[in-house]
Design goal:
CATH topology: HIT family, subunit A
Shape: globular
Radius of gyration: 14 Å
Helix content: 10-25%
Number of helices: 3
Distance between the termini: 31 Å
CATH superfamily: HIT-like
CATH architecture: 2-Layer Sandwich
Structural class: alpha+beta
CATH class: Alpha Beta
Number of domains: 1
Oligomer: single chain
Order of helices and strands: HHEEEHEE
Length: about 120
């Protein structure tokens, strides 16, 4: 990843506070914010505070970061009252999967019964 890729990344700008967002939860390694185009009543994105283009760039050294992404997602779900009925965590990898931003992120979806398979 080049410095220019991170400088142009909308999620890096959100994490840095250069672009406004509605915070869902924050931790030392992650930031969660609500999606501007939600596909469920609760739709938040959990992003690492460092730029990682996508999950294919994750290695064993990212174990603590990945664990913190999951615990951040759980905190969002708990704050939104989703623990009892459930919620979905999703990583989209590549354009065929619907990834639009080249910064690894996890979707937290809930607040209604979600269909399967997603469509």
């Amino acid at each position: 990843m080049s410095d220019q890729e991170a400088a142009d990344c909308i999620f890096c700008k959100i994490v840095a506070g250069q672009v406004p967002s509605r915070e869902a939860h924050s931790s030392p390694l992650t930031y969660a914010f609500y999606d501007l185009r939600p596909v469920a009543p609760v739709h938040a994105l959990v992003v690492p505070r460092v730029h990682i283009a996508d999950i294919t760039r994750v290695g064993p050294e990212h174990g603590p970061l990945m664990a913190e992404m999951v615990t951040t997602a759980r905190a969002v779900a708990e704050n939104e009252g989703l623990l009892h009925n459930g919620y979905r965590l999703v990583f989209n990898v590549g354009t065929d999967a619907g990834a639009e931003v080249a910064h690894m992120h996890m979707h937290v979806l809930g607040g209604r019964r979600l269909s399967w398979p997603p469509g």
